[in-house]
Design goal:
Layout (H helix, E strand, L loop, with lengths): L1 H25 L15 E4 L5 E4 L6 E6 L6 H18 L4 E6 L6 H10 L7 E3 L4 H5 L7 E5 L5 E6 L3 H10 L3
């Protein structure tokens, strides 16, 4: 019986350490670490055919990583849409991009999701081959990054509100 208790305690401690490690790496990480190839433009095509370059030419960008199947991502994409509208009204020069991390989701599914969260005006891309996720070191859904005009990640968070997104874009040089 002593062996069983010891094994159970060891497994419990290991489980807690793993959960803590995952929480630290995936949720709310606000370290502004530069991307591996910061400054090197990443060119992608949105689901509606627009060419998008990160870093954006001469302006910062807010980039939100999501999946249609992620319930927590709803508020994050909605906040990105609200920030896009607020920036346009205030004359804030910035780019906005929603990145679907699930390559199995169709263009039509993503368009329906973007309409549902009232962010249909935000360009969306499918992260084929996890190119953008790897480029900006994003491993968790519902992550927003702000990238300055040089390609350096200046802000990283989970589901920030529109006001925070705008404030971080301004800090990044919009």
């Amino acid at each position: 019986m002593t062996i069983t208790r010891t094994r159970r305690a060891t497994l419990s401690v290991a489980g807690l350490l793993l959960a803590g490690s995952l929480a630290l790496t995936a949720c709310g990480n606000t370290d502004a670490t530069p991307a591996a190839d910061a400054g090197t433009p990443a060119a992608v095509t949105s689901i509606d055919g627009q060419k998008v370059s990160l870093p954006a030419t001469g302006k910062p960008a807010a980039v939100f990583f999501f999946s249609v199947g992620c319930g927590e991502c709803v508020e994050g994409v909605r906040s990105l849409g609200e920030a896009t509208t607020a920036a346009e009204k205030a004359g804030v020069e910035a780019a906005f991009l929603a990145v679907d991390m699930d390559p199995g989701e169709s263009k039509e599914t993503i368009e329906g999701f973007m309409d549902y969260v009232e962010a249909e005006h935000v360009p969306a891309v499918i992260d084929e081959g996890a190119a953008l996720s790897r480029r900006f070191d994003v491993a968790a859904l519902s992550t927003l990054i702000v990238v300055d005009a040089d390609g350096t990640v200046t802000f990283r968070a989970t589901d920030p509100d529109a006001k925070t997104i705008i404030a971080e874009l301004e800090k990044a040089g919009s």
